[in-house]
Amino acid sequence: MTDTRAVTDPRPSAPDGTDEPRRPDPVVTTEADPTPIVRAVATRVRVALRSPGGRDALRRLPGPDPIALRSSVDAQRVTLTRTAEGLHLDSHDPVVPTTTLDVDPFALTVSSANGDALAVETVSALVNPEPPALAAATRDFWALSSALSGMPGLVLHAVDTGEVVHAGPREQPYEIHGNDLDLRRLMAGFDWLVHSVRAGRFAINGTHRQLSVVTGASMKAVYDV
Asked: Nearest to residue 178, comparing CAs of 144, 152, 202?
């Protein structure tokens, strides 16, 4: 008779990583009352660190000294300091010698005249990540802004892909039509609605009151307030 019972291998199995506990996602912290540029950078870094690419950029970030981002047009600045949990952002001048990069305070693009290639590469990946898919970004935007007084439902129409995403009440919604990437950036808090409309990126349909409320919701997404 054949014995069909499972045979236990006495040798210990080689670790394959499947039983290892998942590492917690990196945490982004800021000073107690962050300046607008610190808030805007923190919003983007939090999105970046949800992805493997963003976490890899944090791991490769030159250190351990802070990295300072100085506005190319005014006195604004952001200092990035690695911590045991992730990354801390504030507007203070670092007390130790550090890498200093230039940042456009509007687009948050990063550059350096000193050839700091690794710093530019990794910081750029953190402050200009790929925004989430439109549906996911819209869900996050709605969760953040739906409690605002007078907030209308939203219709996002990506004219280049044909995707239409709804959020909130369907009666008299506020419509925003534009390219998929621009809509994703808006919903993720990377761009401000009024600036994007003035730049010709969106066609909008709604009342002036709706525009006012959705503009406030957009600022809330950008600055996490």
From this structure: 202
3-class secondary-structure state, position 40:
helix
Spell out, as residue ranges, where the chain has pLDDT lower than 70.
1-23, 97
Q: Say if strands 86-90 and 154-158 run parallel, antiparallel, or are unpaired.
A: unpaired
> Could you give the angle at the alpha carbon of 146 between the alpha carbons of 140 and 148, nearest 5°?
130
Residue 93: the pLDDT is 85
Residue 78: what residue type?
Answer: V
**Residue 108's pLDDT is what?**
93
List pLDDT tens digits, range 47-81: 999 999 999 999 999 878 899 999 999 999 999 99
Is residue 99 packed enough to be buried (19+ CB in 10 Å), middle (13-18) or exposed (0-12)? buried
Residues linked to residue 208 through DSSP beta bridges, in sequence order: none
Residue among 74, 119, 117 at smallest CA distance from 99 = 119
**Which class does domain 134-223 fall in?**
alpha beta
> C-alpha distances in angstroms, 154 versus 146, 172, 177, 213?
10, 9, 11, 12
Burial class (CB in 10 A: 0-12, 13-18, 19+), 134: buried
- Tokens 């890899």: give the residue: 56
Domain ranges of the chain: 27-127, 134-223
List all residues 6 or more positions away from 75 whose beta carbon is below 8 Å from its beta carbon: none
pLDDT of amino acid 21: 57
- The CA distance from 19 to 24, in Å, is 15
| Residue 96 pLDDT | 78
